[in-house]
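Could you show me just one protein sequence together with its fold in token form as a worked example?
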Amino acid sequence: MDYLQAIILGIIEGVSEFLPISSTGHLILSAKILNIPESTFLKTFEISIQLGAILSVVVLYWRKLLINFKIFKRICLAFIPTGIFGLLFYKIIKTYLLGNEMAVVVSLFIGGLFLIIFEWWNEKKNEQIISTHSLKNGDENIRMVNRTFKRPDDELEKISYKKSFLIGIFQSIAMIPGVSRSAATIIGGLIVGIPRKTIVEFSFLLAVPTMAAATGLDLIKNVGHFSGNQFGILSVGFIVSFFVALVSIRWLLKFIKKHSFVSFGIYRIIIAIIFYFLIF
């Protein structure tokens, strides 16, 4: 891998980390397109530069993550399932799944279908809630709808511990490349009744301990095998992903105010089909 390839992968990571399209999947497929030979360093690079993107969350949300202890406890609880499964299945994931292009393509395709179906179901459910609480008095109707959607979970610190742990279980599914950590946590949060903006922000914060642990574990196991030049390449990818992710986070928060995730589902299906014919 050279520095230009590291910059390209850093941009791809920064853009895709917080979108429900699987950053790991995109890195694996992009490395294949760029003809980067599969190696221990490449796999570590694909894991480690994600921490660069994650650090952008620390910059933007450091008060909520480090000062608000109520939120901190919920993030720690949600991290536990992934931490346990990550330790148990690290070798299997690194050996058989990370770098498996077919697993990525299949996961992207199935995940895209699931996103579209879920958003359709979620829209129907919300319409039913509004219809059920419709009243003749317009003002009363508005108050009723507001009470329906302004649940106690509207704020991060009010997410229950049970829901926090369930979100962590959903996140652990994303250890399969192509699933998308953000998609798994966001959809999981919506399923258990957390408002969209709240679960998106919770997903941002949950990424911090998750990727810090994944990167730390991988570096401990492999850092002794890398050359000085490889550390330089890793640093470039890390820095690029950090700055691009700052923009990506702000864009996603604006996007979800007016849009669902259907477009991401369609994108996943299209990109899975394209990569299938390009690679296989």
Observations:
- The chain is about 80% helix and 0% strand.
- Residues 133 and 144 are 7 Å apart (CA to CA).
- The radius of gyration is 19 Å.
